[in-house]
Amino acid sequence: MVHSTSNRGAAQKSRHLRALASYTTASVPTFIQDPDAADDPTPHRVVVLYKEGTKEGFIADLDLVEAVINDTGMSNSLPPFAFQDGLVYKLHHEMDKWNLLAFTASTSILKWLAEKEGSSVEVMELDQIREASNNSFLTSSYPKLDSLGHTGSGLGYSSLSSTTEPISFWPLNMIQALDLFEKSFNGDGVTICIVDSGVNDTKAGFDSTKLSIGESLIPNFNWQSSEPDDCAHGTQVSGIIAGNGAADGPLGVAHGANIAVVRVLNDSCGSAHVSDILMASLACHSKYDARIINIGLSGVEYSMLEEAIMEDATLTEDILFVAAAGDEGGVDDLYPAANEHVFSVASVDMFEDVAFNSQSNFHVDIAAPGFRVGTLDFASDAVAYGWGTDMAAAFVSGIAAVLLSAMPDKTLSEVRSAIEKTAKRMGAEDYDADDNGSRNNDYGHGIVKANAAMNCLLDDTKCAPFKALVVPADCVDVPEGWHDVDGPEFDCEWYSLYDRCAILGDKFVKWDDVSASQACCMCGGGQRRIKWITLSQTSFENEDWGEWMSADGRASHSDLNAFSGSFSLRLEGGSFTPRPNLLHNVVDVTNLMQLQLTFSFKLVSLSKNEGIWVQKSLDNGLNWITVAKFSNSVSLDQHPPFVVNVEINEEYKNINVPVEVALGEERMILAIKMYASRDLEGGYIDDVILKGKERVSQFT
User: Fold this and answer.
1) pTM for the whole thing?
2) Which domains does the chain have, with CATH numbers?
3) What is the pLDDT of residue 444?
4) d(Cα 389, Cα 225) in Å, to the nearest integer?
């Protein structure tokens, strides 16, 4: 079949169903165009888009051929071959909503239908195969935390009645589902439709009041009277989405949502066709009112009709198709995930590395946990650990449902956009970009972060990609040597591995009444070492005073009373207005919580209450606030906040003056001023250093 797969960034071409008629010369499989096809009895299963209002005539043509072949034999005007025991065609699906028929007929019949005068065929294509991923599952007893490793007391989660915390929580934590659970959002009121192998609805791990057993699209098979899911695939996908946490089973990512399951795979898993998936999708929406459709199947062959219908449903009915990117571990496009408007999901492990078998290509949109994730075993109350992009797709479908339940006024298009915009960017940076930000072939836009997506939906100024916790290099664990109540083994280093901080950081009985979240830097706690930065420093050894200057010319370079080197700075005495002063250039204090002015000085021939004042101004020198006074015979309680009695002609070395910075202050000027009434009086200043203390002192 002739077609071109679409690429992001390529010229936009509509693939809506009515536009498909424009593909006239390329609307049938290539084998039909072969002249020898007229005599070819080989059967093919096809999907046909027929012209509006021609369905009855189309089927009548097939019935006429069948009647002629069976009743009167060959006719010069009709194709010569039935494909099986006189049967001209076998009808599989009728989808009147989209003017589609899926049926099997011989090559000769198909050629005749496509090329006959007045043909009703707009598009005919092979009904391509779609299969479930060939994943491995390990069934075992459910450990309390598995790789998280903690088996001590104090476990628990508000949504569970028991005191165990199953391994399924690491994926929920990674994608921030637990954050939404804490806000009481769990998918309630939203329906997710799962197109798969069915579901074992007898398990305690499902809420029967929220589970709808849909129809089976497998011929001559009533799955409700047979084993509900011997294939197991559908049960495992359903467990990730809707598990209720009973019997130590997994808690589903959307455990409050309604689940409808339509079966397209048999007990041996086998395969389905494109028309099966389309028919199932039709049932999902029309019968169960589901707008999130989860598809854990994939195939290598492209279908124009599949892409067109999914695009049409997405854009006109706000349907979100979520599909597994594929598990061949290669770069090939697998469908339906690679279709333009389908949400294609890659798989990552608990270390956020893309899974070895996850497909990597231009159509991957998002990534989610899909390697060794806990879900429901189809045959017992044990737990199956599964891996595959189909598992990852289930998490994304669930998150979409939870977000929609929290914000029902939003469209699923908006939900998808928020998920992509706020995902945690991983792998190669800016490999490519679309309207929702940078992406690459392994992770798409990145790993799902549900709480960040919700914040984006609430406020479109908060739609930046999720940023991982960055621990400052100067952070220290406080108290030193902290560990939790279960012993020294469970210290900050233990909590730093995997997702233990987020899952367990606040859950254990605390030692010294401090949790890991408070004590450990890696958990967002701890305390930063005090960090001072030098803003200016001068010893007045030359005429360049650095950041300092004299505003009135009464501060001068001097070779007397130097503390280091050969020179100091003299501030003259006298009744001057303004006072003789040494001014520092404007200091940006936006990110500082304190300044520290250090200097050495000597005062000469001063009267009582005369001396050196340190002042600050926040309005470019219009108004001054006294920070400290150094004076002879001054009362300590008379001039707060920082007053020092000094002796005349004594040297005072490296005196520290703290200058507080209030939150919100941005610009500050400092001054060292001389208050003396006689010209012979004054002081000498040397070795002036100004430092700033960064505002953040506690890492939260």
Assistant:
1) 0.67
2) 17-127 (3.30.70.250), 167-462 (3.40.50.200), 475-527 (no CATH), 532-694 (2.60.120.260)
3) 95
4) 30
